[in-house]
Amino acid sequence: MLAINIFMSVPTPVLKSIIENDSFLAHAHLGPDADSIGSTLALKLGLESVGKVVHIYCEDTIPEFASFLPHIDQFAVSTLEDALKIYDADIYLSLDSAKWGLITHHTPVPELHLPLVNIDHHSDNHLDTPLAWVDSQYSSTAEMVFHLLNELEIDITPQIATCLLFGILGDTGAFQNLNTDSNSLRIAAILKDKGGDYIQCLIELTRSQEFLELKAWQPLLENLTLSSDGSFVYSTLSPEEIASLEKSPQIGLFANAIIGKINGTKFGAVLAEKQSGITKGALRSRHPDTDVTLIARLLSGGGHPGAAGFRLLKPLKEAKQDFLNAVEYLQKQGKI
């Protein structure tokens, strides 16, 4: 049997737009994660190695766990509106962002006035542009950037390899998430051979939990609830519980570590009202045949089959009921 060809073709219009232009503006999405940071920084370093100019920014602060990455200080903290005024660019690059609500806090979204290139692996991507490469077969956007740099015949340096490894390890959960496939593993091996710092990526992403973060999981563990049929679990965190903690926990971290790993269940969720009247939720699947994006989409969210999220402009009590209603609806249809 022939090995799978990991060098897949990038759509010609996307490739052409990058080859024929010299300056770019790109972002890391709101609440920047390893894939968003790593893929954006890797593409910047790659394009700049062949003489192009790439400005990168984020409306939120880049988290400490990414501080070891090369040239991480190149991310400006800026709004989309200000970035468009400050930086002169031929093309706007959107990576790993399924919708404008992940790019900017501002509504309405400022007009770009320049072509948009959309590169993403989320199946529910809603950014409308003729220059789009959206393909959910990839484990991460970093994996797509690997292919793009290969098509552009750009040398992957140890620094670029580290950024790409960071993105791939982040979105595959260090190869424990259900989106991990043979191509993810092959590409990671190539990047490690090219000098990517696999060990440091692994340490920062999987072995660097803050003490206060773990302490803040106590109420989430106490509130852990098993559904009556045993098929799923969920936990909640109220504003009062958050106020009693030294640190407000990151629900995504708790979801990754606990929610998607409980024996006998199909999936889990964690809901927290960190801002008054606004509840965020994180969903994790335990089995490949359980697609949690089906739940997220009913709650105006999105993501991947194995990991998804949502944001409801409702207090926790109402949001929890909406979540339970969505699950019940999908269960009656036999979809989860």
List the defining traits of the structure above.
alpha/beta, inorganic pyrophosphatase (n-terminal core), Diaminopimelate Epimerase, Chain A, domain 1, 2 domains, six-stranded mixed sheet, 13 helices, 36% helix, globular, DHH_sf
Give an overview in words.
The chain folds into two domains: 12-206, Alpha-Beta Complex (inorganic pyrophosphatase (n-terminal core)); 211-332, Diaminopimelate Epimerase, Chain A, domain 1. It has 336 residues and is α/β, with parallel strands linked by helices. α5 runs antiparallel to α6 (182-193). The model has no long low-confidence stretch (mean pLDDT 95). It has a six-stranded parallel sheet with strand order 3-2-1-4-5-6, with helices on both faces. The protein has helices spanning 12-19, 34-48, 80-86, 141-151, 158-172, 182-193, 198-206, 211-215, 218-222, 239-243, 251-257, 293-298, 316-332; strands at residues 23-27, 53-58, 75-77, 91-95, 116-120, 131-134, 225-226, 232-237, 267-275, 278-285, 302-303, 307-312.
